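Dear H.,

Thanks for agreeing to be a second pair of eyes. The structure we're designing against is below in token form, covering all 212 positions.
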């Protein structure tokens, strides 16, 4: 089975967002990865609840919402109401990760936990049994179009070794037709790609190269 493909709209053309979403739907994307940044946890500001609400109206793809924000617990409910199907928060932004996981699940959606490049995988071992997804960042979160940090990929098999069956191990950052294969060979089963897909001359071909 090929990995779950979750194109990151961070690299899409926001003036033609519906068009770009339709293109990745047609190309076989399973999910849409939506990066929410607050300018505090990461040095960039992106989109919030209103945009997700609008996207929800035009697609049935799973909305894979990645919160790169401080105090993520305060924003779970608004994002769920806007249409998120899965909410991933950062381990580094959480004082009590188990409480945030519980909050996400009690809102009726799937929960993910993410780690930055400098964070050791063992930091999240205690939470693997409770989450639906782990997101391994292979770039410093904040901006699209960065180069893949190869050392980060070594976290994938370590997480897999400690993970319960069925856990989704997602990678995000510098994913292309070469780095995607490195990650899936190590045990990743979900790929986030932004600029590789949306900056491609042929979006469908770019998606297909990640799916096979």
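And this is the sequence the design step returned. I haven't edited it by hand at all.
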């Amino acid at each position: 089975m090929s990995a779950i493909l979750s194109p990151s709209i961070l690299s899409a053309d926001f003036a033609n967002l519906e068009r770009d979403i339709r293109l990745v739907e047609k190309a076989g994307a399973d999910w849409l990865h939506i990066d929410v940044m607050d300018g505090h946890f990461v040095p960039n500001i992106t989109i919030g609840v209103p945009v997700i609400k609008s996207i929800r109206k035009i697609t049935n793809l799973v909305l894979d919402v990645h919160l790169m924000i401080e105090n993520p617990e305060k924003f779970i409910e608004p994002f769920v109401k806007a249409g998120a199907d899965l909410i991933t928060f950062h381990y580094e932004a959480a004082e009590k990760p188990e409480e945030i996981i519980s909050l996400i699940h009690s809102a009726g959606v799937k929960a993910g936990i993410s780690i930055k490049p400098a964070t050791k995988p063992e930091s999240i071992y205690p939470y693997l049994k409770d989450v639906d997804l782990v997101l391994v960042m292979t770039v410093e979160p904040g901006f699209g179009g960065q180069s893949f940090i190869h050392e980060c990929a070594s976290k994938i098999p370590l997480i897999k070794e400690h993970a319960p069956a069925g856990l989704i191990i997602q990678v995000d950052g510098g994913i292309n037709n070469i780095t995607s294969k490195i990650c899936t060979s190590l045990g990743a089963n979900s790929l986030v790609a932004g600029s590789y897909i949306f900056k491609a001359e042929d979006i469908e071909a770019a998606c297909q190269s990640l799916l096979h």
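Two observations from my side: The chain has eight helices and eight strands. The helical segments are 17-26, 49-58, 76-82, 97-106, 155-162, 179-186, 195-198, 203-211.

Warmly,
E.
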